[in-house]
UniProtKB/TrEMBL annotation:
One of its GO terms (cellular component) is membrane. The keyword Transmembrane applies. The chain crosses the membrane at residues 22-44, 64-87, 142-163. InterPro entries: PTS_IID_sorb. This is PTS sorbitol transporter subunit IIC. GO terms for biological process: phosphoenolpyruvate-dependent sugar phosphotransferase system. The keyword Transmembrane helix applies. Keywords: Membrane, Transmembrane, Transmembrane helix. NCBIfam families: EII-GUT (TIGR00821).
Length: 176
């Protein structure tokens, strides 16, 4: 009988923990995201959606810019997770690759600009503790993270764009 009570308590405990996580999200990141979305949408309205779209088109015209400058701007200004909303300025065929680039850049930017992904700062700080224990400067580490991050997001963006295009062609050929 005690075994069944233990299972029942564990079962309901799982849902209680889920409820605590849900409340944590509702009192933590959700209001922040709602405020950020509201401000960004207001900014887009003030500046003008046409101007924002023109700027986005200029910074995404070439794949090199689309998977370097555009995700860097998104992550720097919008931070994680709001940076992914920059994808709305891209055609559907480029959105997966942009997301892949942006999500891949939220860690490399942390060393120089901690505000961009403060929730994951512990990853960088864990490595930084080892560097400082060796009495080395963190500056070169942060810069290397940033530069390597740019190379990685470019490669990931190009590969994901190629995969997306292949999958779209396959789907179109199957539809015929």
């Amino acid at each position: 009988m005690e075994f069944l009570v233990h299972i029942a308590e564990g079962f309901i405990g799982m849902f209680q923990q889920g409820g605590k996580t849900f409340v944590g999200l509702l009192t933590g990141i959700v209001p922040t995201l709602i405020c950020l979305i509201t401000v960004i949408n207001a900014l887009i309205k003030f500046v003008g959606e046409e101007r924002i779209n023109k700027f986005a088109q200029k910074t995404t015209k070439y794949a090199v810019l689309r998977y370097t400058i555009f995700p860097i701007l998104a992550v720097f200004f919008m931070t994680n997770p709001m940076c992914y909303s920059f994808g709305k300025f891209l055609p559907e065929r480029q959105k997966p690759a942009f997301y892949d680039s942006a999500v891949s850049f939220v860690h490399p930017i942390t060393g120089l600009f901690a505000h961009a992904n403060a929730s994951e700062l512990f990853v960088y700080l864990g490595i930084a503790n080892g560097i400082t224990a060796l009495n080395l400067s963190l500056g070169p580490l942060a810069i290397r993270y940033f530069l390597v991050g740019i190379v990685v997001i470019l490669i990931r963006g190009l590969v994901t764009e190629w995969i997306t295009a292949s999958m779209m062609r396959k789907r179109e050929s199957q539809a015929l």
